[in-house]
């Protein structure tokens, strides 16, 4: 089962709520970027940065365990979080590729 970091989910929800509120204020117009809010590219960039930091945290915990400086429970937790994060990234990638292939199969 894939998980999403709570902070990422909250930010995405707040951004969508703001976009939805602005779209209802001006029917038929969806703003490209709400002032002060990150756009979708920023959202993806932040998600990738969070993913990389989680995976690095798992690697660092494993290295500390090898050196005898970390508790095994902390190492297992960090490595498990890294594995779940990687599984999430792979699942999202697969969905994006599937959506792209669906679009390419659409008749013009």
First CA to last CA: what distance?
37 Å
The fraction of residues assigned to DSSP E strands is under 5%
Mean pLDDT: 79
Count of discrete domains: 1
SSE pattern: HHH
Largest sheet properties: none
Radius of gyration: 19 Å
- SS-derived structural category: mainly alpha
**Poorly predicted spans:** none
Number of strands: 0
Oligomer: single chain
Q: What sort of overall outline do the alpha carbons produce when their principal axes are compared? A: flat
- Count, helices: 3
Helix content: over 70%
Description:
- The chain has one domain.
- 75% of the residues lie in helices and 0% in strands.
- It is mainly α.
- α2 packs antiparallel against α3 (72-105).
- The chain is built from three helices and no strands.
Essential attributes:
single chain, 108 residues, mainly alpha
Task: Give the helices and strands, then pairings.
Blueprint: H1 6-25, H2 40-66, H3 72-105
Structure, briefly:
With 108 residues, this protein is mainly α. The protein has helices at 6-25, 40-66, 72-105.
């Amino acid at each position: 089962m894939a998980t999403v970091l709570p902070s990422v989910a909250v930010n995405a929800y707040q951004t969508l709520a703001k976009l939805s509120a602005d779209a209802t204020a001006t029917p038929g117009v969806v703003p490209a970027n709400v002032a002060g809010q990150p756009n979708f590219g920023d959202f993806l960039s932040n998600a990738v940065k969070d993913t990389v930091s989680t995976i690095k945290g798992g690697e660092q915990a494993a290295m500390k365990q090898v050196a005898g400086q970390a508790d095994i429970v902390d190492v297992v937790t960090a490595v498990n979080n890294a594995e779940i994060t990687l599984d999430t990234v792979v699942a999202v990638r697969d969905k994006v590729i599937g959506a792209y292939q669906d679009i390419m199969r659409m008749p013009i």
